[in-house]
Write a structure and sequence with these properties.
The protein is an all-alpha fold. It has 3 helices and no strands. The mean pLDDT is about 85.
Length: about 90
């Protein structure tokens, strides 16, 4: 019911914020991509006139929020799918 959904949301919110960050940082591919992203950002700031810096930061903030929401939704859906699968396996 609605209470179950609220509880699942609360659990997944906690898991997404802490656990995933931990997992990402342990992943070599993620660390490489993160480093490449940082280098690209530094390069971008060096090349662009200062009056565009706020604009780029705004774009990056928006992009990061969007990516964060995508990760959260995918993680929550994965947990729901896993719960459903376990439920189905227990019924058989």
């Amino acid at each position: 019911g609605p209470e179950d959904k609220e509880m699942l949301d609360e659990i997944t919110d906690c898991a997404v914020s802490g656990r995933l960050q931990e997992i990402f940082l342990k992943d070599g591919d993620y660390r490489k991509l993160s480093e490449t992203e940082k280098e690209a950002a530094v390069s971008c700031y060096r090349e662009l006139p200062e009056e565009y810096h706020d604009l780029v930061e705004s774009l990056m903030d928006c992009h990061n929020s969007c990516c964060g929401k995508l990760i959260e939704l995918a993680y929550k859906q994965g947990m729901k799918d896993c719960a459903r699968l376990l439920e189905e396996l227990n019924l058989k």
